[in-house]
Design a protein that fits this description.
Blueprint lengths: L21 H10 L3 E2 L7 E5 L10 E4 L7 H14 L3 H11 L2 E9 L10 H26 L10 H8 L3 E2 L8 E7 H28 L3 H6 L6 H11 L4 E7 L17 E3 L4 H14 L3 E13 L7 E9 L5 E6 L1 H13 L3 E8 L6 E10 L4 H13 L1 H9 L7
Parallel strand pairs: 11-13
Antiparallel strand pairs: 1-2, 2-3, 4-6, 4-7, 5-6, 7-8, 9-10, 9-12, 10-11, 12-13
Length: about 400
């Protein structure tokens, strides 16, 4: 799942026992299916893992740090977890190493795709990962803006955040997946995603009851977007249903205004028509945005030496996108070409067009080079030299840069 997936053979760091709260360890064990099998009441509890891989394994976890042997018991428990073959042991260690909220996806695939190691099972797992990643991305985008369609806007920031999320291996034959979102820089996104999922569920219920999609318009304010509806379609398509649950970090507790144990959100094939229609409506309804963009010219192209042309900008400021395609008149194109050759950014006004994901600037005008200090100029020239093919392309078109 992009770079967010830690390979299954890479060990999870084992935290130091001095940094472990016994109550947090107990909560994580219970969350991941470990069973409490007695122990000395008020002093320690004995836990055994779920499934056949945990046979013969048990942990003694102290109830608190009040007793002299609590540190030794915690150290022994952590060592046993690190050596356990049970997948749940890995998840418990992950939750201890970095306080994280857990987002869990379940996807009920048809029986034909469940045979372990089969092509069908691999496809089921890939679809689950794709839907989960898209869901996380939609939640991250919702923290930047509440719009029906994000397109390319804020994609860099959302992708950078997503790269810091740890995703465990798919379980139950590729039908279950868990993401560990660090509380420190991910709690806002996790909360935004949960709020948006509830709003999407309510809007889908209204659509199924009335046939109208107006409720999806109101759901935009809660973070629902085309990106989220597409993610849900990916999860549900070809399955009997999908469920998403969020569990707060035991160490941090729930955020203000949220239940301690949020109800899972479920979607079924009957929701697909409404989700698809809402996504199309979001795309149609998103209008272009007036902007004034500063960027580095990366590529130039025109058919005639003295005519208009098209440039590709690497955006530095003015728009929440990484690249823009801009059609320019002959004079503005000439100015952009000169700026490119000497390593200067340009500033241009226009409208950020929603078609194509906000990657195109229309009605461009007022192209002017932007003066920068020597250090910044050297950095930009170095960037151009590292992309020599772009520089050579500009030089090849230089005959059109005359006065």
């Amino acid at each position: 799942m992009h770079r967010t997936h830690r390979p299954t053979d890479e060990p999870v760091p084992t935290p130091h026992p001095d940094h472990i709260d016994p109550a947090v360890l107990g909560a994580l064990l219970a969350r991941h299916g470990w069973r409490r099998r007695g122990g000395a009441p008020g002093r320690y509890a004995r836990w055994t893992p779920p499934g056949p891989l945990g046979a013969g394994t048990s942990l003694l976890v102290p109830e608190s740090r009040e007793f002299p042997d609590s540190g030794d018991l915690l150290a022994e428990a952590l060592t046993a977890l690190s050596r356990s073959a049970a997948p749940s042991a890995r998840e418990v260690l992950t939750g201890l190493a970095v306080p994280s909220d857990e987002i869990r996806w379940w996807r009920e695939a048809p029986e034909s795709g469940r045979s372990p190691g089969s092509v069908g099972a691999w496809a089921v797992q890939e679809q689950l990962r794709a839907g989960a990643r898209a869901t996380l991305l939609a939640g991250a985008l919702a923290t930047h803006d509440r719009v029906g369609y994000h397109g390319a806007r804020h994609r860099r920031e959302a992708a950078d955040w997503l790269a810091r999320v740890l995703v465990g291996p798919a379980g139950s034959g590729g039908r279950e997946l868990t993401a560990f979102v660090p509380v420190a820089d991910g709690r806002t996104t996790t909360a935004a995603l949960l709020r948006a999922l509830y709003a999407a569920r309510d809007a889908a219920d209204y659509q199924r009851a009335t046939g109208g999609t107006e409720s999806f318009e109101a759901a935009v304010a809660a973070g629902v977007s085309r990106e989220l509806t597409e993610a849900l379609v990916t999860l549900v398509r070809g399955a009997q249903g999908a469920r998403i649950a969020i569990e707060w970090s035991p160490a941090a507790g729930p955020p203000e205004g949220f239940a301690a144990r949020p109800e899972p959100v479920e979607f079924s094939p009957g929701d697909l028509p409404g989700l698809r229609e809402a996504g199309a409506r979001y795309l149609r309804g998103e209008s272009s945005v007036p902007v004034r963009v500063t960027g580095v010219v990366l590529r130039l192209r025109r058919d005639a030496p003295d005519g208009p042309g098209t440039v590709r900008l690497g955006v530095l400021a003015g728009a929440d996108v990484a690249r823009l395609r801009v059609a320019l008149g002959a004079d503005d194109y000439r100015i952009a070409g000169h700026a490119h050759l000497v390593g200067l950014p340009i500033r241009v006004s226009g409208r950020l067009e929603s078609r194509g994901g906000f990657r195109r600037l229309t009605g461009a005008s007022g192209v002017t080079p932007v003066q920068v200090d020597e250090a910044e100029r050297d950095r930009l020239l170095k960037s151009l030299q590292e992309n020599l093919e772009f520089f050579e392309e500009a030089c090849g078109d230089a005959e059109g840069f005359g006065s």
